[in-house]
Amino acid sequence: MRRLHRTALAYSGSALNRVQALEDELADADRQSLRSAALVRALEGALADAQQRATDLELQIRQLHGHQDRTAAEKDKALQLYEDQVTALLRERQDLMEQVEALGEELKDAHARRVRAERRCEELERQLVAAEEQASQEDTAAEGPRVDPAADGSHGVPPAADGPREGAPVAEVAREATPDEAAPDEATRGEGTWARHGLDPRFGFETFVVGETNRFAHGAARAVAEAPATLYNPLFVYGTSAIGKTHLLCAIGHHARRTRPGTRVRYVTAETLAHEYLGAGRGRGLDAFRRRYLDLDLLLVDDIQLLTGQGGAHEEFRRLFDELHGARKQIVVSSDRPPKQLTHLGDRLRGRLESGLITHVQPPERAVRVTLLRRKAEQEGIDVPPETLDHIASHVQRNVRELEGALVRVRAFASLNRQPMDVQLAAIVLRDLVPDRGPSREEDAARRIIEMTGEYFGVTAEALCGKERGRALVTGRQMAMYLCRELTDLSPSRIGQLFGGRDHESVDYADRKLRALMAERRSIYNQMTELTARIKAVDGPPSGRWV
Ligand SMILES: Nc1ncnc2c1ncn2[C@@H]1O[C@H](COP(=O)(O)OP(=O)(O)OP(=O)(O)O)[C@@H](O)[C@H]1O
């Protein structure tokens, strides 16, 4: 419209109108110029932004390229490392497979050697028995006619100082001794032969090892030996097989003879006594038999449970008992069970056996068993590592004869195979000797100890047996090990196995450490006391010794 207006003015012919039109046109051009300048500025800004962004992008791209290069280099390195490791592992696996193969061969060999060794042991044992029998027959022949010792009135002759006859099974011989078998002149024959008192020369108080399970019986035996027929008469000692009853009876006899020379003593098994009685017949034979016993100051009767009632032997023994007791002579009796259970002896005899002191000997605890084994090893002149003795003592628990037999076997096996008497070897030998009784009570007790110690310290049994080494865990673990050692009969190696496959040295270390800590720190001592009381309250004795 404006342009049309200006054009109209310009053609109207007036100069004024022309000026006006030009001014308007200028103003328009000026506005146009301003708008263009603004547009230029805006475009310049946008360009600068785009350039900046392009520069940034360029930088980023360069960085990414650099990173890519580095990652690739690292990747190559890692790959190389991985390949190296795989190669090393493959090599190690190969080595191990070769070792496994070699060990398998060795094991087969060892098994074969073991079977051969066992056979050899059996053969040697057979030869030994035959040789002993032959020696015994030769001895009997050499002794000539036997003399009734009652007739020569020489009861109580002190033993000669010589040791047992070489090669003779002294214990057996002594147990079977009868007065008829006694030599006419002991002094010329030595103590090892069938002395008329029947006491085994090896069984004195000095060779008896005292522990918790036999302390009372030992004390009573000593009291009787020191003052016969004053305190406990009769003394009745009972307990299972091979736990030292015969040893105690003989020790009483030896002590009484040594401290009161002239004391007339006789050790006899109930079986022998019954045979003698039956063999005596009637008349003079019976008189001689009675004189032989009634002359005594101290009668020691072993294994009374074997007294048969044949031919009135029970009655005869009861008569002897009454006469000796009435004359204030000491009687000591042993049995595998308490008098109450000896029903076959009849109420009258049983009543007499119950009238004195009854004492129960239980199988020796581990410490005693270890001492017995150590002594046996010393006697035999063999060097056995303490942990092997410990292992044997932990596995053979109820019978001292078996215990000593186990050591003999381990020794034989080691020497036949030219191997050291270490725990591994003992384990192989004992595996066949000791019947597998399944998870033992001792192991159950140890597991309970671990659990209860864990509870006490607020950790799990798994953690206690694991590898973590936090302070509380280490203390708890060592306490649990110590308690297992203290309260069970398990060997340190077995305890170590229960604690996640640790070795016996860790257990021994824990044991030493806890002993030292308890002596140094009251708090540890108190914790141990409390924990022990809790365990005992729940569990009771695993092997009859937490008393
Ligand atoms: N506490 C001990 N100290 C020393 N030796 C012991 C002890 N206990 C047992 N023995 C030994 O063990 C072996 C067997 O003991 P002993 O013959 O006295 O057993 P027992 O109880 O009489 O058995 P059994 O009823 O089978 O005859 C013996 O050699 C004995 O010396």
TrEMBL record:
Domain AAA+ ATPase as annotated: residue spans: 231-359
Keywords: ATP-binding, Cytoplasm, DNA replication, DNA-binding, Lipid-binding, Nucleotide-binding
UniProt subcellular location: Cytoplasm
Region (Domain IV, binds dsDNA): 415-547
Binding locations of ATP: A242, G244, K245, T246
Major subcellular location class: cytoplasm
Domain III, AAA+ region: region residues: 198-414
A Pfam family that the UniProt record links to this protein: Bac_DnaA_C
Superkingdom to which the source organism belongs: Bacteria
Region (Disordered): 130-196
Region entry Domain I, interacts with DnaA modulators, spans: 1-178
Sequence ranges assigned to domain Chromosomal replication initiator DnaA C-terminal in this UniProt record: 445-514
Coiled-coil spans in chain: none
Task of the protein: Plays an essential role in the initiation and regulation of chromosomal replication. ATP-DnaA binds to the origin of replication (oriC) to initiate formation of the DNA replication initiation complex once per cell cycle. Binds the DnaA box (a 9 base pair repeat at the origin) and separates the double-stranded (ds)DNA. Forms a right-handed helical filament on oriC DNA; dsDNA binds to the exterior of the filament while single-stranded (ss)DNA is stabiized in the filament's interior.
HAMAP family: DnaA_bact
Protein family according to the UniProt entry: Belongs to the DnaA family.
Subunit record text: Oligomerizes as a right-handed, spiral filament on DNA at oriC.
Comment text on domains: Domain I is involved in oligomerization and binding regulators, domain II is flexibile and of varying length in different bacteria, domain III forms the AAA+ region, while domain IV binds dsDNA.
Protein name according to UniProt: Chromosomal replication initiator protein DnaA
Organism expressing this protein natively: Streptomyces musisoli
